[in-house]
């Protein structure tokens, strides 16, 4: 088990306790925890050293600050077991997780196994609240054993490093490493793993992902140019791997449902974005999707409309749509008008001065399930 740590003194004890509390005796496995103090300037390194001083299962590696990908790679170099897992130092691993994952691989003989996750948040009173994202529940149900990516392409949307257990020989044979120097390093590596091996998908929630409401997480800064650049870079890295896999169905689903899946979070940043950020968004979407318009994607309807406007370079109109959506108290108005169901642009078009009259039907069409 590898746990990178950088300035997480307030969260690290809970993460360490959750890992060290795992009982692996019934599955005949011993726990080894390598904590990589990635140049922390708070007490994270001292906390890790304290745990190591009283628990021989813990080893601490202190490095200069090189980022999450580098810290994971450093930890993997120090790990000695036949199985390899990763845990972030501000999250929590529920009891029984590793026993379940180890037992699953013991039965199936797969190269790795992935389980579902729950978001760990706090209610107004500060009490913990766990919520399994519906899309993760869907990806992990029903369970599957020893499958290949082409048998369940949508699972490539489960990009997380920390809800998986890998066989170390598979990890080494495929020369898997985490990209360094960029955020969102999970996606290229997990994509390569899915494409290279046979894996199990289980419905169990095996990880509690802490959502920091103070916005301090590096993945909660989407309005910055660097964040968007890293996101587009890692999307392209993953797309290269899928293209090389050379399966038409997998490529189509990856483009439409996986790579497009998080764009709506960036579209909300369009109102008030900088010129550089807007240019990068357009460039990235053009490079990844090209002539395969995002109106074909699995984005929600209003965001498919926004995507089309981005593709056309219509910044003010895209910002108007996103501003309108942010002010809605319910779903986007819709109409049929004697024809197929579609978004009703009557109100939002007033914000654009009537410029949405040329929007093609494909950009506002509603699907049967919407």
Automatic annotation (TrEMBL):
Source organism (scientific name): Nocardioides bigeumensis
Annotated ranges, domain Glycosyltransferase 2-like: 2-168
Top-rank taxon: Bacteria
Protein name: Glycosyltransferase 2-like domain-containing protein
PANTHER family for this protein: GLYCOSYLTRANSFERASE, UDP-GLCNAC:BETAGAL BETA-1,3-N-ACETYLGLUCOSAMINYLTRANSFERASE-LIKE PROTEIN 1
